[in-house]
Design a protein that fits this description.
Keywords: Calcium, Signal. By secondary structure, the protein is mainly alpha-helical. It contains seven helices and four strands, in the order H-H-E-H-E-H-H-E-H-E-H. The protein is globular. It binds calcium ion (3 copies).
């Protein structure tokens, strides 16, 4: 795992740490900062917690064709616009938000996500709970991203050229 994290830092210029900094620490710091910025984006009513009103605003904002659900292309389009630094994980986040894996994010999916984020089960998603949850999700997605890239690299590496004289 440590090896993967170090590799991620090498692969992404934006993640490169100053020479004296531990790459793993730098990675963790970076992910936490992204989770914090996600909270700011998702706390639509700016009250310091992720609440049901935020879920409604999120759904309405992302549901461009107003059919009551967020389709994959709507999610990726909106997400790329609002969180360009996280565009690389938008596909994975859609799967995370689509709790019942129906390819539509509905209010029921968002309620299920909300309950997963409510780590201490008090019915409220505090700033810290949201960030803790998202830090975990973003870390996993970053690792999957690297594995997928390695898989593609392996698949794309062409066989050694045959020499014909
Ligand atoms: Ca809020
Ligand atoms: Ca829609
Ligand atoms: Ca809670």
């Amino acid at each position: 795992m440590l090896q993967y994290l170090a590799l991620l830092v090498l692969l992404h210029p934006s993640l490169q740490a100053p020479a004296q900094e531990d790459p793993l620490e730098h990675f963790n710091h970076h992910v936490r900062e992204e989770a914090k910025s996600l909270f700011v984006a998702f706390d639509y009513n700016d009250d310091g917690s992720f609440d049901h009103r935020d879920l409604e605003i999120f759904l309405n904002t992302y549901d461009l064709n107003k059919n009551g659900a967020i389709e994959r292309d709507e999610f990726e389009h909106n997400f790329d616009m609002t969180e360009p630094t996280l565009a690389i994980v938008a596909k994975g986040l859609f799967i995370e938000f689509d709790s019942d894996k129906s390819e539509h994010v509905t209010m029921a999916d968002l309620e299920a996500l909300y309950n997963r984020m409510d780590l201490n089960k008090d019915g409220h998603v505090a700033n810290k709970e949201f960030e803790e949850y998202m830090t975990e999700v973003l870390t996993i997605l970053a690792l999957l991203q690297i594995q997928q890239q390695e898989f593609l690299d392996a698949a794309n590496s062409s066989p050694p050229p045959t020499t014909s004289v």
